[in-house]
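Our preliminary data section would be incomplete without showing what the modeling component actually yields. Below, a chain of 164 amino acids is followed by its predicted structure, encoded as C-alpha cells that our downstream tools consume directly.
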Amino acid sequence: MERRFIEATNLEVRKTKDGRKLAGYAVRYGSLSEDLGFRERIAPGAFAESLANGADVRALVDHDPSKIIGRTPGTLSLSEDQRGVHVVIDPPNTQVGNDVVTSVERGDLRHMSFGFRVQDDSWSTEGGESVRTVTKAELLDVSVVAFAAYPDTSIAVRSMDRWK
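Predicted structure:
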C-alpha cells in the first residue's frame, strides 16, 4: 500500500441538523506531489473503477486504523468529479472524532492523504525529474493528516446546507 499526504486547501467542517460533517478533496487530479524521490500525479478517473465497485474505504486520522472517523458505505461518502475525489465524513461523537473536528475548525489540520494500491501507471521525465502518473488504482483510505505530499487537497467543517 502507498500513502500520499496532501495539503488540504478547502477541507471543511459542516454543521447540520444531524451534527457536523468534514468535507473536502482527498485527491486532486493532475497536480504534482511534493518530491517523493520522484514526483507523482493522479490521472483523472484513476479511482473510478474502485469507487464504482463499492470499495470498502476508511476515513482515518494519520492513517491510523485505531483512529477511524468514517467508512463506506455510510459514514464516509466518496464521489468523483473533474477536480478529484471529494469526501464527506460524518465523524463520530468520540474523543478522536471531536478532536479532529476541533483541529480542523482551528485550522491546525488542513491536509488530507490517501492510501492506495497502484494497478497501472506510466513514467516520464519532466523538467529533469522522474514523474509517475497513476492511471488506475484501488483506493484504500482517506486520512486527515498534519503533513501533506500533494499541495492541492482540502478539508473543513461547514454547514451542509451550502451543498444542497
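DSSP finds two helices and twelve strands in the chain. The helical segments are 48-52, 95-106. Preliminary results of this kind motivate Aim 1 of the renewal.
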